[in-house]
Amino acid sequence: TILDAELDSVIKAIEGFVDAPSLTNDNVNIGIVTFSTEATYLGNWGAADPNDPKVVNPSLVDNLTSLSYGGWTNFDDALDKSIKYFENDAPDVGARTNIMYFLSDGLPNRCGDDDLNTAEDNCADSDDNENKPGTIVFDSELEILQTNYSVSIHAIGVGAGSDVTPGSGLDKLDNTRNPLTGDNVTKVTTSDELTALILESPIFSDVLELEVKVNGVVLPYVNASHVRSTPTGYAFGTTIVTGLDPTKDVENNITATVLLDVDGNSTTTSDQLTLSTETIVLGTAMPSF
């Protein structure tokens, strides 16, 4: 089912978070809201098992895999419950990068509850109301999420039945925009596409610094100027790496660390994000005698 594909993608994405050396339970917290006719805030978890930082949190996985589907589609209540996470449970909410992935395989057909709009007064809860004005009136919720908590909302339509056309509910939700393509809301039709989308850098930021180390030694000729933007994020070109030990089976450690600036102002640091990755390259050369 579409739900199974969504859950598989989300769990794979969480595995990606756990595998990233710079992402730990100290700086990553995940809240989950499910929605159909009404929404439910399930709680929040660290991505990793508290007893083993290299393993996905089993409680988080259990809650995800126990989900079922059915009912109408209520975007408004989903946003209301998301606000509860940021208001009450999200740690260091004012200092962290706050991101929401809003996934839906259908169209909103349940009326909102607290925004002033004449359409809501005559809004019946039915499939005939899909994407009608009364079902996509959630300005007050978006205002709270964006103004109070600086939440980047990535709306994702999952499957052929979703709608990401201009003016749709998902289009109205998404407040991100890829400056390279002009796109914001996205539709995916495979679980691999969804996993890749979640694991992409969620913020199109300025690259302030790039440092690459080989076996602990910084490569002085590699810097931020080597990073180029592509429609799907950042890419690093080909370069010759020195300092590798070619001896067979010797482990060479290569790390790359990048400093991103979200708001375009390099003098403010609260929005800046440091990401790093690590790769082991084995030597293959046989010793000569």
Layout of helices and strands:
Elements: H1 2-19, E1 29-35, E2 39-46, E3 48-49, E4 52-56, H2 58-65, H3 75-89, E5 99-104, H4 118-121, H5 139-149, E6 152-158, H6 169-173, E7 186-188, H7 191-199, E8 206-214, E9 217-218, E10 227-230, E11 233-236, E12 251-261, E13 273-282
Parallel strand pairs: 5-6, 6-7
Antiparallel strand pairs: 1-2, 3-4, 8-9, 8-12, 10-11, 12-13
Helix pairs in contact: 1-7, 3-5
How would you explain this protein's 3D organization?
By secondary structure, the protein is of the alpha+beta class. Helix content is 24%, strand content 27%. The protein has seven helices and 13 strands. It has helices at 2-19, 58-65, 75-89, 118-121, 139-149, 169-173, 191-199, and strands at 29-35, 39-46, 48-49, 52-56, 99-104, 152-158, 186-188, 206-214, 217-218, 227-230, 233-236, 251-261, 273-282. The strands form five sheets. The chain has a four-stranded antiparallel sheet with strand order 9-8-12-13, with no helix packed on it. A hairpin with a 2-residue loop joins strand 3 (48-49) and strand 4 (52-56). Mean pLDDT is 82; it is low at 117-122.
